Amino acid sequence: MSERMFSEEHLEQLRSFPEITSDELIRYFTPTAADLAFVSPGGRGPVDRLGMLVRLCALPWLGFVPDDVASAPPAAVARLSERLGVGPKALKLYGKREQTRSDHLGQVAKYLEWKTAPAGSQAMKELEQFLLDRAMEHDSPTLLFNLAREYLMAAKVLRPGALIL
After folding, report:
1. In the chain, domain spans
2. Alpha-carbon span 106 to 62, nearest angstrom
C-alpha cells in the first residue's frame, strides 16, 4: 500500500535529511557538555565523534537517523564540527562499516532513552491501536502516516522505515 501511497521521490525524502530552519539548527544541533562527553570517550577518533554527534542531534529532530549521515545539512555539520574541533569534511569518512553505524545508533538511542519498535512489539501494538482510532476519523493515508510519525517521536520510539510504517 505505501508504495502506491508515496512516489519513489517522496519515499526518498522520507528517508533523507530535510532542509533545516535556523530555529531547528539552534534547538537540535546545540549539544550540551554531557553530549560532547558522551561522544568523546578515549579511543574514539574525530570522524566517529562527529558522526555520532550528528546521529545524536538528528534523532530527536527527525525521530530516526538517515542512513547517509554525511548528507546532513551543511549548517548543522559545521556547527557540530566547530564544537568538536573537527573539520566538517571528516563526516564524509564516517560509518564506512554498517556495523559501526548500527552500533553507534544503538548507543545514541540508549543515551537519549529512545527505544526501538520491532514488529509485534508492545510499542507497535500501541501504535496500531492509535492509528486504528484515528482511521475512524480520517481516511487520508498521508495524514495517518504523519500522525504515526508524531506519535512515535512523542513516545521516543525510533521510527521504522517509511515502507514498514
Report:
1. 2-112, 115-165
2. 16
Alpha-carbon distance 97 to 25, whole Å?
A: 28
Asked if residue 57 lies in contact with residue 31, where contact means CB atoms within 8 angstroms, the answer is yes
Cα-Cα-Cα-Cα dihedral sign, residues 131, 135, 136, 137: positive
Q: Do 76 and 53 form a contact (C-beta atoms < 8 A)?
A: no
Question: How many helices, marked H, and strands, marked E, lie in the chain?
Answer: 9, 0
Q: In Å, how far from its chain's centre is CA 52?
A: 11
Residue 7 gets the label, from left (phi > 0), alpha (psi -120 to 50) or beta, of beta
SS3 state at 159: coil
For the beta carbon of residue 160, count every other beta carbon within 10 angstroms: 18
Distance CA 87, CA 60 (A): 24
- pLDDT per position as a tens digit, 10-53: 888 888 999 999 999 999 999 999 999 999 987 789 999 999 99
- The C-alpha atoms of residue 35 and residue 52 are separated, in whole angstroms, by 10
CB 58 within 8 A of CB 72: yes
Quick check: pTM over 0.70? yes
Q: Mind listing the pLDDT tens digit for each residue in 136-148?
A: 787 788 888 888 8
